[in-house]
């Protein structure tokens, strides 16, 4: 796959799965041997963990929107800096809805194999945002 194709796959994952909650697209975008190296320790580090995480995120922030700020790619790796904006309209991690607007900053790296996610590493300020609710 080309570098540009890999970037498009990452954008599609962010928009269709993370933003829109479409779990069907995972069969096209995520390898069966996928490993999420930075998912919270109480969640599986595979595709089922992705689905759990997005379910929690959408429950608390059903109107979430992802803005891709920047992408850098080389070989089979894509680094993305993105911003998630949302409104706290549902319960998340014990926090009842506040109606507050939130902004979550994220940086992640994805390794792709044959056009699919195989590894993910990331950092974000989600826990600080949730604690501020």
UniProtKB/TrEMBL annotation:
Stored Pfam families: SnoaL (PF07366)
Signal peptide: none
Gene Ontology BP annotations: polyketide metabolic process
Gene3D superfamilies named in the record: 3.10.450.50
Protein name: Ester cyclase
Lineage: Bacteria, Pseudomonadati, Bacteroidota, Sphingobacteriia, Sphingobacteriales
């Amino acid at each position: 796959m080309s570098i540009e194709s890999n970037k498009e796959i990452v954008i599609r994952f962010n928009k269709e799965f993370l933003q829109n909650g479409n779990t069907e697209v995972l069969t096209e975008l995520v390898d069966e041997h996928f490993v999420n190296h930075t998912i919270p320790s109480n969640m599986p580090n595979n595709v089922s963990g992705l689905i759990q995480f997005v379910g929690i995120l959408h429950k608390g922030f059903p109107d979430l929107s992802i803005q891709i700020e920047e992408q850098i790619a080389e070989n089979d790796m894509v680094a993305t800096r993105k911003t998630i904006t949302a409104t706290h309209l549902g319960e998340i991690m014990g926090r009842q809805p506040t109606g507050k607007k939130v902004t979550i900053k994220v940086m992640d790296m994805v390794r792709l194999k044959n056009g699919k996610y195989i590894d993910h590493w990331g950092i974000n300020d989600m826990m600080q945002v949730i604690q501020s609710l």
